[in-house]
Amino acid sequence: MSRSNKISLLIMLAIGVLISWYAVRDIQFSVLIHDLSSINPGWLLVALGCILLYFFLEAVVTYVLVKSSTPNFSFRNAIRVPLVEQLFNGITPFSSGGQPAQLVVLLQAGVDGGKASSALLMKFVVYQAMIVLNFVVSLLIGFHYLIDTVHSLAIFVLFGFLIHVVVIVGLLMIMYWYSMTKRVINWCFKIVSWFVSEQKYQAWKQTLNEKIDNFHYESVRIAHEWKLMGKVCGLTFLQLFFYYLIPYFVMLALGYYNANVVMVTSLDVLIFLVISIFPIPGGAGGAEYSFEKLFGSYIHSSSKLALAMILWRLLTYYLGLVLGLVALIVKPKPAKVKHD
């Protein structure tokens, strides 16, 4: 990790402590201790199992995609990818550091740069597509509740959905309308020449075109492997499904056994979209605000609502930071190259 990344990590941990303190500041200490002691550890372990399955299934998706072009790629190296991604997603604005970090991990494992980039972009496309699919279903189930309770969040949810759709459309255009899309991207990229030297602009333009070319050729190859894509889509859907279930099991751990699993899961899908549009790393502030607003009508106790929010963030955000640090420490095992 660079010095700036370490500083960002410390800042995010400090922000997390401040937000948690702010959430419980008006709650009596005795009430907080009572609610903590009454937590059902069994359901909390199930919630923990869900986030671990989320990481595991993403590792399986990475393994399946990379293995298709790099036969000697090991599952041990695949496990490092989602964990390092979680760390750098969590400490960079708009989760912008996750993709480059994954690429570095794959390069360390001996995967060719072009193949690694294409596999990661295909994983990203499928991931975005599954988010949109889940959102459409959740919109039908929970959007009326969102409109009735928190009007302001409805705007954020729709804006987040629009961002995901635009990203998918852009990547699909590179796959299927390659020539036209490349011309449009290069035309838009001319704006960069206004701010940098001609030499740097040409170098960046060449790198951009190489990445577009690599993504196009590799993505077309992978996209025509229907069984592979079907497997990746199914695994990604399951991955997100386990993630979205976490608030439900947190509520069960706090004693809310009458929670509607379909509605709670749908609301978490909507929160996921809100988080994606906040520029602060990890969606800090926006995530906690969204959770409390959406689940406030389900969890009437202010103490338990604050605990639910803190437990949810510990599992879905801070655990990823810790495991990502561990993954950075573990040295990669480069793929062995077979010689004829």
TrEMBL record:
Q: How does it sit in the membrane?
A: Multi-pass membrane protein
Keyword Protease in record: no
Output the superkingdom of the source species: Bacteria
**Location relative to the cell:** Cell membrane
Q: What is its main location?
A: membrane
Which keywords has UniProt assigned to this entry? Antibiotic resistance, Cell membrane, Lipid metabolism, Membrane, Transferase, Transmembrane, Transmembrane helix
Q: Which residues cross the membrane?
A: 7-24, 44-66, 124-147, 153-178, 237-257, 269-289, 310-330
Question: Is Nucleotide-binding one of the keywords UniProt gives this record?
Answer: no
Write down the chemical reaction(s) this protein catalyses.
Answer: L-lysyl-tRNA(Lys) + a 1,2-diacyl-sn-glycero-3-phospho-(1'-sn-glycerol) = a 1,2-diacyl-sn-glycero-3-phospho-1'-(3'-O-L-lysyl)-sn-glycerol + tRNA(Lys)
Per the UniProt record, which EC number(s) apply here? 2.3.2.3
Xref: InterPro entries = L-PG_synthase/AglD
Role, per record = Catalyzes the transfer of a lysyl group from L-lysyl-tRNA(Lys) to membrane-bound phosphatidylglycerol (PG), which produces lysylphosphatidylglycerol (LPG), a major component of the bacterial membrane with a positive net charge. LPG synthesis contributes to bacterial virulence as it is involved in the resistance mechanism against cationic antimicrobial peptides (CAMP) produces by the host's immune system (defensins, cathelicidins) and by the competing microorganisms.
The UniProt similarity line reads:
Belongs to the LPG synthase family.
Under which name does UniProt file this protein? Phosphatidylglycerol lysyltransferase
What organism does the record attribute this protein to? Fructilactobacillus myrtifloralis
Q: Which gene encodes it?
A: mprF
